[in-house]
Specification:
By secondary structure, the protein is α+β, with helices and mostly antiparallel strands. It is built from 5 helices and 16 strands. Strands 1-14-3-11 form a 4-stranded antiparallel beta sheet, with no helix packed on it. A 4-stranded antiparallel beta sheet has the order 2-12-5-10. The protein has a two-stranded antiparallel sheet with strand order 4-13. A hairpin with a 7-residue loop joins strand 15 and strand 16. Helix 1 crosses helix 2. The chain is globular and about 60 Å long.
């Protein structure tokens, strides 16, 4: 899938383990607390592309710990329809993503929602363009650095989008939390299951979990093994395979257009 080596291994290793107590619990993922929907490594200039999470243990005594996914890009398109002012604010106001701990000092500033540049410099910016990226990672967001007049508008817009993305924030009685309730995928993984998703587009999380004190150590374990791939290497591998498939399936030997994977990208020749 990667078309090469695994990527983004500087902080947690090329292959990392998600379980309570791992690496002295220097990340909330290594606890039993719930994880809100988020992207990994949003503080990188180029965050991971695909993420793979392999369930190797889900003890019979584990209560909770369901994995969740929601499509952030689809939610951004819906936000533009329901709350255009909030959408525009999240396009125009950059946020700072940070990672600060022993051995890590990373920061990157970017807006939550990014639109494609249509290349026409004579026109003023429009909010109707193609959405090509969404950046969302609440656990790793630093203080905002915005003009005073924009701060309240930003937090209001942030709250609107967060309510659409995080199913734990509402019961579906309002239109925003109704979206989260309708479009959040939730499943308790079983040993052998593997979750594979586009980290640039899908937000992942989990519900909190626990195990009774009377349960054996083995039956109390929730253990996932994960890794990342570089989006460019993965897309290259995909395109090469699709091109070979087209060459073998057409009599003329002329390839048709190949659709890029995810990220709202266009058709290329």
């Amino acid at each position: 899938m990667a078309g090469g080596e695994l990527s983004h291994g500087a902080l947690y290793g090329s292959i990392f383990h998600v379980r309570v107590g791992e690496r002295n619990s220097n990340n909330v993922a290594y606890t039993s607390a719930p994880l809100c929907p988020h992207q990994d490594l949003a503080y990188y200039e180029s965050p991971p592309g695909m993420q793979l999470l392999h369930c190797v243990a889900m003890g019979s005594g584990v209560e909770g710990g369901e994995s969740t996914l929601i499509d952030a890009m689809a939610a951004a398109y819906r936000l533009r329809e329901m709350r255009p002012d909030s959408f525009e604010c999240l396009v125009k106001c950059p946020v700072t993503f940070v990672k600060q701990r022993d051995g890590a000092c990373m920061t990157y500033r970017r807006p939550h929602i990014v639109l494609a540049d249509d290349g026409d410099c004579s026109k003023s910016s429009s909010m109707d363009g193609e959405i090509i990226a969404v950046h969302w990672s609440p656990p790793f967001e630093g203080p905002v650095s915005l003009p005073p007049n924009d701060v309240d508008k930003y937090y209001e817009a942030y709250a609107h989008f967060e309510r659409m993305l995080d199913v734990s924030l509402g019961d579906g009685s309002d239109v925003l939390s109704q979206y989260a309730n309708e479009y959040t995928w939730e499943r308790k993984l079983s040993p052998g299951d593997m979750l594979v998703f586009n980290n640039r587009r899908m937000l992942h999380g989990r519900t909190g979990f626990s195990a009774a004190a009377s349960v054996s150590f083995e039956d109390s374990q929730r253990h996932l093994v994960g890794c990342y791939t570089n989006i460019d290497d993965t897309l290259n591998q995909y395109r090469v395979l699709m091109r070979e498939r087209e060459l073998h399936s057409t009599d003329s030997g002329v390839t048709t257009s190949i659709l890029n994977v995810g990220n709202g990208t266009n058709i290329i020749p």
